[in-house]
Amino acid sequence: MKIKLRQKIEEDVFDYVQLTSVLAGYGNIRAKIGRLLASGEIIRLKKGLYTFPEYLRKAPLNSCVVANMLYGPSYVSCDYALSYYGMIPEKVQLVTSMTAGRSCEFETPIGSFVYFSRQAQDYSIGIESGNSGNCNFLIASREKAIYDKALTDKRFTGNDIMAYCLDDLRLEDEALHRLNCEVFMALQAVARGKLAKLVNFLLEINQ
Known about the structure:
Blueprint: H1 2-8, E1 13-15, H2 16-22, H3 29-39, E2 43-46, E3 49-51, H4 63-70, E4 74-76, H5 78-84, E5 95-99, E6 104-108, E7 111-117, E8 127-131, E9 136-140, H6 142-152, H7 161-168, H8 173-176, H9 181-188, H10 193-205
Helix pairs in contact: 5-6, 9-10
């Protein structure tokens, strides 16, 4: 059954509708899905979302793609995005995202995913489309990733912003001076309080 299933489902990550359409010939589809899960022929990421075991995948799973699919609307941001762009020295395992929904977390067999809620005018600014080779995903721009990190970081007070960026976030100094002013100008129109201070500072050092 595993070979036929792999042949009939093109994607490495698939949902309940796709799975049940392939298993339509079985009298008890739920029981069949239970057996597939128990045997390890498919892996549940969350209720209604699945992947194949590593040896049956066509390519390594892209955590950004999985993050978008696990919970949405959302886009990858904060520490994971900063690591993705090589702006911080650490390799980040926890996949961090911003969402227009409620804050939540998922512990899955392929890793941990956390989502920070943000229902404000700045949510849609600075979101870019990435490509994993066979699937697109939404991720914060470099500028928005810094902004979102400060937004969700209790350490950020709006004071001594350069020290915060270099010491707390461990951002590379060169990367900090090669940012896109257009994103900051868009954020400047809606940012308030300590976030406005961050945006104005980063805009100033990049002009």
